C-alpha cells in the first residue's frame, strides 16, 4: 500500500515540473522585458524612451501609429525640434514641435511654446488652465528616430480593450499548453 502512495506522489511531482518550468520561463520573459525597458530609460535619460503617435496633429511628418524613439539631454531646446511632453492634469503625452523658446537670464528657467505641424494654432489651449508656456520638467524627451506604423497595435489595443484581453489570453494559453 505504501508503494502505491509513493508511486502516486512521484507521478504528481513529474506532472508538476513542466508547469513549474513554464511559470519560470514566463517570469524570465517578463523580467527580461522589464530589464530592457529600465536599461533604455537609463541610456536615453527619458522616462519613456519609446512613444506612439496617437493623433494626426504632426502630419505629414509623423503619422498616427508611428513609434518615436526619445532621448533627453541637457542641451538647450531649440525651435524646430520635435519633443514629447506631458501637460499637468493629462495622462497622455503629446508629440509636437517647439516653435518658441524663451530663457530667463536671471533664473535660467526655460519657457517653451509648441504646436502640432498639422494644427492652425499653438498648443496653449492644450496646456493646463492658466498655463501659457511649458517648462523643462514637462518635456519627456526629443524625438531622435521613428518607425512608421509599428505602433498601430498599441492604438488598437487601447481603443478596443477586448482585443488586448484576447491577445493576452491567447499568449497565456500558448505558454501553458506549450511543451519544451
Automatic annotation (TrEMBL):
Residues 43-142 form the Peptidase S24/S26A/S26B/S26C domain. Its main location: endoplasmic reticulum. It comes from the Eukaryota. It catalyses: Cleavage of hydrophobic, N-terminal signal or leader sequences from secreted and periplasmic proteins. It is found in: Endoplasmic reticulum membrane. Its EC number is 3.4.21.89. It is a single-pass type II membrane protein. One of its GO terms (molecular function) is signal peptidase activity. This is Signal peptidase complex catalytic subunit SEC11. It comes from Quercus suber. The lineage of its organism: Eukaryota, Viridiplantae, Streptophyta, Embryophyta, Tracheophyta. The gene is SEC11C_0.
